[in-house]
Amino acid sequence: QQQVKQSPQSLIVQKGGISIINCAYENTAFDYFPWYQQFPGKGPALLIAIRPDVSEKKEGRFTISFNKSAKQFSLHIMDSQPGDSATYFCAASKSSGDKLTFGTGTRLAVRP
Amino acid sequence: EPEVTQTPSHQVTQMGQEVILRCVPISNHLYFYWYRQILGQKVEFLVSFYNNEISEKSEIFDDQFSVERPDGSNFTLKIRSTKLEDSAMYFCASSVVLSTGELFFGEGSRLTVL
Questions:
Q1: I need a surface site. Which of B3, B5, B40, B91 has the fewest CB within 10 A?
Q2: B89, B34 in Cβ contact below 8 A?
Q3: Which residues does A60 contact at the CB level (< 8 Å), separation at least 6?
């Protein structure tokens, strides 16, 4: 019940295209859903996050869509750029706790 | 920009040896964490620390692991007797408040156990 399932495992997108990464969770106690971006040899860095009181959050080219009833959330990267090539992790945590449960990661490659 | 710093960046050790990984969290942060990432796998929670005590730990964090905040700035992870399966990237993270999930991660310490 603590798992966060993430797909796809890897994704190749052409420059300018839309990258879409999906996550699903089971624990209804989760109420904070961040996305982390990780470049090789670096630690994860917070990209964007959402709480269940909204269905969508947009920051620049990055958008989180959240479906509370389906217990799913997704990351959309518009106008994908080669510099977006990285591993993306979704995560979830409870409001009463601070532990992040991470998804398995998606390795994104944006072709020039 | 404030950042979490970790040392060493890479440590190679023999099985059975003790290892200490060090972290300097962001200065005004109150909550500290260790996560690990086995090569190519997801990031896994090990332990959280607040007010000089462990607040939560995972099943991975067994008696071989310990954490300490020996002074006002450092936060350490000790592995008493390393095993081959302890080989991983260990990330320190900190946050200023609880329950926002906004963790700031260091660049990691790669531990290789031979």
A1: B40
A2: no
A3: none
* CB pair distance less than 8 Å for A97 and B106: no
Report chain A residues whose CB lies below 8 A from the CB of B93: 43
Option in A49, A89, A103 nearest B101 (CB) = A49
Give how far the C-alpha of residue A96 lies from the chain's centroid of Cα atoms, to the nearest Å: 21
- Identify the CA nearest to B4 among candidates B30, B25, B20, B18: B25
At B20-64, the pLDDT tens digits run 999 999 988 888 999 999 988 889 999 999 889 999 999 999 999
C-alpha A64/C-alpha A56 separation (Å) is 6
Q: Position of tokens 């009181």?
A: A53
Among the partner-chain residues A44, A96, A98, the one whose CB lies closest to the CB of B95 is: A98
On the question of pLDDT at B99 being above 60, the answer is no
Report the pLDDT averaged over residues A106-112. 96
Task: Retrieve residue A40's tokens.
Answer: 């090789």
| Cα distance between residue A64 and residue A66, in whole Å | 6
CA distance A27 to chain B (A): 16
Burial of B94 (0-12, 13-18, 19+ CB in 10 A): buried
Amino acid (1-letter code) at residue A21: I
